[in-house]
Design brief:
Blueprint (H helix, E strand, L loop, with lengths): L26 H5 L19 H13 L21 H8 L1 H4 L11 H18 L3 E3 L5 H19 L5 E5 L5 H8 L3 E5 L9 H7 L4 E7 L11 H10 L3 E5 L19 E5 L16 E5 L11 E5 L2 E5 L16 H12 L3 H22 L15 E3 L3 H4 L5 H10 L6 E2 L9 E3 L7 H20 L1 H5 L12 H6 L6
Parallel strand pairs: 2-3, 2-4, 4-5, 5-6
Antiparallel strand pairs: 1-7, 6-7, 8-9, 10-12, 11-12
Helix pairs in contact: 3-10, 5-10, 6-7, 11-14, 13-14
The structure holds pyridoxal-5'-phosphate.
Length: 481
């Protein structure tokens, strides 16, 4: 976007004494009875701007953003799919949006019914027995899951202190384990990216509480040994936790419960199409088997003779991980999404997300070799080819080059086990045309880099800021550009 250089000023720098946006008298002001000793002595230093100035200022800032509504967003492991507007309408219905969180069960039958039905549909989809909708995101669900495991082993009178995590895992897995005071045991993946059962057996035993396994894993590959893995974990008396962030590859095709897992998490902002935050609330869930159900957070919803009631469980519950039933507004959006799809269409979500990832992978494989030599699931992990690396070009240069071409960069440098990783997840909601444009942009970045490496190292050129020292930018953000 082109803008006059003076537009880059902060709102306070645009301030002009005496300019106002609102001309009517504030009716509340006259009535406010703030005691004199609590009133401020000097007026606050706020920008003095006209309403039009303010609208233009914030509209311009909003247009500097990349978002799923404006750009293809192939962020691997994040499932940045389209957020249907219908979900927003459902969540905004007054009966849901205006319900007081302390309203009695008799006054909240509609919301309780929704939570009950959502719970039933999700446990069925996962092939498991029970669920909590309280967690606020995936990482919070992991935390909840490990609390369940802890309570489960305490109840059995067992002390187990170790969480086993493959080296391909998302950083939240070992982070959750250490937050909970467990020791993390790392296992190296095989060259094909999978977990080797014999290797696993060397790392599990009476101290093992849980194996946290991402399925399909972060390389976009299905753990074909999962049943043998589950058997080994159970023989050691431990629990198998599935990180379900990648459920988009399995939804409607496989019930994770059939694979032998004990519990898994869901990320509603990934698989179930709710927005990825932006500062707003998120939602996650833990779905589990019967033996973990008594420890679930409360309340859950129970049906009793045609009525829905809050169920506070018994003393085995881990308590609450979030107020009330969790971020109910987000759950309404996920429910709307579920109702909009038949069982077959859920399978299509997985099928199209897998086809799209393989389409991108196949078209790019000559310029950007794929880490894995086999077909991928819903995402592919590529690296820059030798003709690029020979010229000193890195994954970061590819990412910056894509930004200049109007694409949000894919996930880069993750998973950590792949040197110079570029992780692309198109999701099922992107069209062939968009994928073709993205592939063309990736090829164009390659050609630019090989022909003139320095010019690609200078990318991005089209944004308000060029290359930042990203660590410094995160630690000491300089918002005055
Ligand atoms: C996104 C993700 C998480 C964390 O989920 P949040 O909802 O972002 O907290 C965990 N594991 C994997 C594999 C993920 O992709």
């Amino acid at each position: 976007m082109i803008c006059a250089p003076t537009e880059n000023r902060l709102s306070i720098e645009k301030s002009d004494a005496g300019r106002r946006g609102l001309f009517c008298k504030n009716p509340l002001r006259a009535r406010a009875k703030v005691p004199a000793n609590l009133r401020r002595k000097a007026a606050p230093r706020l920008p003095e701007l006209s309403e039009f100035d303010v609208v233009r200022h914030f509209t311009r800032l909003s247009r500097l953003n990349f978002s799923v509504d404006t750009h293809f967003y192939p962020l691997g492991s994040c499932t940045m799919k389209y957020n249907p507007r219908f979900n927003e309408e459902a969540a905004a219905l007054e009966g849901f949006a205006a319900l007081h969180p302390l309203a009695h069960d008799t006054c909240s039958q509609g919301t309780l019914e929704l939570l009950h039905d959502l719970s039933a549909r999700l446990t069925e989809l996962c092939g498991l027995d029970a669920i909590t909708l309280q967690p606020a995101a995936g990482a919070h669900s992991e935390f909840t899951g490990l609390l369940l495991a802890k309570a489960y082993f305490e109840d059995k009178g067992e002390t187990r202190t170790e969480i086993v995590v493959p080296d391909s895992a998302h950083g939240t897995n070992p982070a959750t384990a250490s937050m909970m005071g467990f020791t993390t045991v790392n296992i190296a993946s095989e060259p094909d990216g999978r977990l080797n059962v014999e290797e696993l057996k060397k790392h599990i035993g009476p101290k093992t509480a849980v194996l946290m396994l991402t399925v399909p894993n972060t390389l976009g590959i299905f753990e074909t040994n999962i049943e043998a893995i589950a058997k080994a974990v159970h023989e050691a008396g431990a629990l198998l936790y599935m990180d379900g962030a990648n459920l988009n590859a399995l939804i409607g095709l496989v019930k994770p419960g059939d694979l032998g897992i004990d519990m898994m998490h869901l990320n509603f902002h990934k698989t179930f199409s709710t927005p990825h935050g932006g500062g707003g609330p998120g939602a996650g869930a833990i779905v589990c088997r019967k033996h973990l159900a008594p420890f679930l957070p409360v309340p859950t919803v129970r049906k009793e003779g045609g009525r829905y009631v809050s169920d506070f469980g018994d003393k085995r519950t881990i308590g609450k991980v979030k107020a009330f039933f969790g971020n109910t507004g987000v759950l309404v959006k996920a429910y709307a999404y579920m109702l909009a799809h038949s069982a077959k269409e859920f399978g299509d979500i997985a099928r199209y997300s897998i086809i799209n990832a393989n389409y991108v992978r196949a078209l790019l494989k000559d310029l950007y070799p794929s880490y894995s030599k086999e077909h991928c699931m819903h995402e592919c992990v590529l690296t820059p080819g030798e003709d690029m690396t020979a010229k000193g070009l890195k994954t970061l240069d590819v990412a910056k080059g894509l930004i200049d071409r109007g694409f949000h960069a894919p996930t880069i440098y993750f998973p950590l086990i792949v040197h110079e990783a570029i992780m692309i997840e198109p999701t099922e909601t992107e069209s062939k045309e968009t994928l073709d444009e993205f592939v063309a942009a990736m090829k164009d970045v390659h050609d630019q880099g090989v022909a003139d490496p320095q010019s690609l190292k200078d990318a991005p050129r089209t944004l308000p800021v060029r290359r930042l020292d990203e660590v410094l930018a995160a630690r000491q953000p300089n918002l005055r550009w």
